Amino acid sequence: MGKLAKGEAPPTDWSVYDFIDLGCSNGGSIQHCLNRFTVTRGIGVDIDPRKVETTRAAGFDAIVADARAIDAERGVSFVTMLDFFEHLPDLGMVEEILAAAARSARDFIYIKHPSFEGQERVEADGLRQYWWNWHGHTAHVRVADYCAMFDRLGLSTYMIRYIERVSDSAHPSIVPASAPQDLSSATAAEITDVKFVEFSPALWRRQDIFIALRAFAPDEWADITRPTGQDHKVMVASGQIPAPGDGTYKHLRPVRRKKVSPVS
Question: CB 3.0-4.6 Å disulfide test: which of 55, 73, 79, 96 passes with 62?
C-alpha cells in the first residue's frame, strides 16, 4: 500500500461499525452516542493524532483523517458531529463535511452544536454567551446557515431542536461582553455583575439537529430524536416545555436506555 496523502483516511472496514463520530477528540462523544442510540460500536475520526491516541486509550477505535475525506459509501447507520463544527475555520468547510457525512451514512446524521443565535443583537446590549468568543470557536454556524446548506446538499428532511431557553441575562451563560475570553461554564456562572436584559426572542444553550437520509416510521424517528433525560430536565427547568404530568409533549419524555460499553 502506498503512502497516504495528508488527511486521507486509511483503509477501513466501515461495515463493522454502527456509526462514525467526526471530531472525536477524547472519545467522550462516542460513548455518548453508544448510550443515546443503544448501538454497540462506533469509530472516531480526528485530524489530530494526539486526540486519536487519547480516544484509543479510552477503549474506542479511531483513525487520523480529515473529515472531508471520509466516504464510507453508506456503510454505517449514522454519522455524528458533537461540538465539532464551531471549531472549523469557515462555513465552507462545514458544508464539505456535511456532504461527506451524507455520503457515508444510510440512516441519519446527528449534530450537536452550541447556539450562536442572536449574537449581534445581544452584543449590542453589551452582553454575550460565554462561548461566543472562545479562541477555538471560529465558525459561528447559525440555524439559517444550516438550513441553506441542507437545501444545497439536497437534505430535505431534518429536525432542529433548541435546548435550554435563555429568557434573560440572569441565565448563567450570560456574561458582560467585556469579560475575558475562553471562560468555562463554572467561571461564567460566578460573574454576578451582569445588567438585566430580557431577550425577545429568547436565546438558547444549543441546538440538536437530526437529518433523515431515508424514510422513517413516525415512532422510529421519534425514538431517534428523543431528548436525553438530562436534556428533558433542562428543557423543563428553563420553561421551554411543561413539566411531565400534564399530558403534553409525551414524545419528548425520556426513556431508560441501557449503558453500552465500547466494543473493540
Answer: 55
Q: How many residues does the structure list for the chain?
A: 264
Please identify which residue in the block is written with the cell numbers 431517534.
224
- Tell me if 176 sits within 8 A of 193, measured CB to CB: yes
CB environment 49-70: b (16+ within 10 A), e (fewer): eebbebbbebebbbbbbbbbbb
Grid cell at residue 18: 454502527
- For residue 2, what pLDDT is reported? 47
Q: Which three cell numbers stand for residue 161?
A: 431542536
Give the whole-angstrom CA distance, residue 88 versus residue 110: 17
Residue 218's SS3 state is helix
Q: Which three cell numbers stand for residue 211?
A: 437529518
* Residue from 158, 169, 164, 172 nearest 211 by CA: 158
Domain ranges of the chain: 14-120+134-165+204-252
| pLDDT tens digits, 157-197 | 999 999 999 999 999 999 999 999 999 999 999 999 999 99
Output the pTM of the full model: 0.91
C-alpha to C-alpha distance for 142 and 139, rounded to whole angstroms: 9
